[in-house]
Amino acid sequence: MFEHLNTLPQDPILGLMKSFREDSRTDKVDLGVGVYRDEAGHTPIMAAVQSAQQRLLETEATKAYIGPAGAEGFNHLISQLILGAGHPALNDQRVNTVQTPGGCGALRMAAEFLRLCKPDATVWVSTPTWANHIPLLGGAGLTIREYPYLDTATLSVDFDAMMAALELADAGDVVLLHGCCHNPSGADLSPDQWTAVTDLIERKGLLPFIDIAYQGLGEGLDQDAHGVRLMAERLPEVIVASSCSKNFGLYRERTGALMLIAANAQQGRAATSQLLSAIRSHYSMPPAHGAAVVELILDTPALTQAWHHELDAMCRRIIELRSAFSEALAPAGDFSFIERQRGMFSFLGINPQQVKILRDEFGIYMLDSSRINIAGLSANTLSRVAHALQEVLGR
Ligand code: LMR
């Protein structure tokens, strides 16, 4: 049975993580996988998460099953976090949220749900997009089409090209958007651009599918959710996949949510019943621990405050690193776009050969596309990376 199988190449992001781990150089720098790092290069457990875990350890009384939708309390609180308490879609009972195994679980179950709604559904994804979007959505049998997103000369959003491509979409097509902190480019839509995309989607009868995996790490929790909140208010149907990996630092606990926003409560109930049936036949139920931690944090004012404080410090640190890095790169060229972009990622705009030199000769790891994780820099490594890049560009 297995003898015909070929060995596949490694996933580009996870493969790079492995190569970095196996590199014995002590001054190596990891700008690859998107995890937050502190000045010492560690990915700490957030203090609010530590406290919540401690409390859970003392109080948790059972490990019995919860159910395919996960914890009701988590689903309620995460919906409020994303949409903002008192959002009209919440008040009108149009929002149905289920807990999922990470953001990937949310994306894949959204794709399975879309296939149930419309077996020949087409999803438009940005070029570029996160490397795992296409396997996650295409793997569920959806047709993928691409819309241009990034002007590679300026590394900013090519909004005219994006809008022109989306004009070609047919009614009922799905448009995948990054809620904030576009992965891999760091180039986000402005509030005016969100309004224009919402107008286009409304006029053409498209379905927005928003992946928001970095809420709180771009500008702040509310600012980063602007696009989701706008679309949820103005459009009859919206799908939102979210993740607690980055903003709660719960990467390995696989904690995420999938929100179906329907035209009315009755349609929402029917849609959710379909989604729950799909979940039951895929993984049955999501893991409980991470969601229990998030629920406790969001349900306990002192923990919520501590978490806000820590997340805000992480967000400010990334913004400061962006300024310092683009300044350090000034002798090598105009990298001011890094300062203007948001979230963990930016492209350096160098070619794969230059990326390889940085890895082989300097121990600086980034994706072949030249995507770097800004949070992987520190005051210590920043100038070394800037000098190495300057040297490679000067060759
Ligand atoms: C990334 O883009 O590096 C992260 O979202 C981690 C992953 O799973 O790819």
UniProtKB/TrEMBL annotation:
GO terms for cellular component: cytosol. SUPFAM superfamilies: PLP-dependent transferases. Residues 26-389 form the Aminotransferase class I/classII large domain. Its cofactor is pyridoxal 5'-phosphate. One of its GO terms (molecular function) is L-tyrosine-2-oxoglutarate transaminase activity. Keywords: Aminotransferase, Pyridoxal phosphate, Transferase. GO terms for biological process: L-phenylalanine biosynthetic process from chorismate via phenylpyruvate. Homodimer. Belongs to the class-I pyridoxal-phosphate-dependent aminotransferase family. This is Aspartate aminotransferase. It comes from Marinobacterium halophilum.
